[in-house]
Amino acid sequence: VESVRPDGVNCRLTPVSAEGLRHLDALSGYRLDVDVPADLTNNKLEGEVRLRAVTTAESEPQTLVIPFSGAPPTRIEIDSPFLGGGRLLNFGRIPQGKRMEAVLTVRTRDLPGPLGLKEAVCDPPHLRVALQPDPEAAGNYRLSIEVPADSPRFVRLRGQSGKVKVTFDDPAQTSFEFIIWAAVVDPEISLPR
């Protein structure tokens, strides 16, 4: 292996076994394994592997360039029927003094350790965000976004949407942003829908 791009990607070149060669109907061959570290990216990945090969003792070395591209599998996914297929959390009208909570399922794949929250930024700022392991499914977590009972009155609907951005402490520091529709109002006041 002459070079690999981007930095951080590792390659291994190993001879194919005699049994493997019989299946390939070949006299000789090598297997190229490319390892992409988890913290490299969660976005589109593009790169190349350059191999220098000599076919016979008398021949000049040849350079073979193997490009690769794709997207690493998502290591963190969030799902909940509360989301309605998007990133909108619609709490609706909440009488002041009442608590409302949305619990989202966070699924993880191939993480090196437990998942935690690095940061949660909320608008309005009094929303509460927590992440707990899911006791019913190993490797999954419950992300709760709460409008607490002691919230002051506020309206975050349609044109004045609120938001919550959570960033996890995984190697890629994956983040998700949710639009919040909620209105904490006096129980006696009705809002147009």
Structure commentary:
The protein has 193 residues and is mostly beta strands. The protein folds into 2 domains: 3-70, no CATH class; 76-185, Immunoglobulin-like (Sandwich), CATH 2.60.40.10. The protein is built from 1 helix and 14 strands. Strands 7, 9, 12, 13 and 14 form a 5-stranded mixed β-sheet that branches. A hairpin with a 6-residue loop joins strand 10 and strand 11 (140-147). It is elongated, with a radius of gyration of 26 Å. The N and C termini lie far apart (64 Å).
User: How many domains in all?
Assistant: 2
Tally of contiguous helical segments: 1
Under CATH, the homologous superfamily of the largest domain reads: Immunoglobulins
- The CATH topology of the largest domain, please? Immunoglobulin-like
> What average pLDDT do the residues reach?
82
Determine the N-to-C terminus distance: 64 Å
Poorly predicted tracts of residues:
none
Structural class: mainly beta
- For the record, the CATH architecture of the largest domain stands as Sandwich
Helix content: under 10%
Provide the CATH top-level class of the largest domain: Mainly Beta
Give structural attributes.
Immunoglobulin-like, 2 domains, 5-stranded mixed sheet, 14 strands
Q: Could you outline the blueprint of secondary structure elements for this entry?
A:
Elements: E1 3-5, E2 10-15, H1 18-24, E3 30-35, E4 45-53, E5 62-70, E6 76-79, E7 88-95, E8 100-108, E9 117-123, E10 128-133, E11 140-147, E12 154-156, E13 162-168, E14 175-185
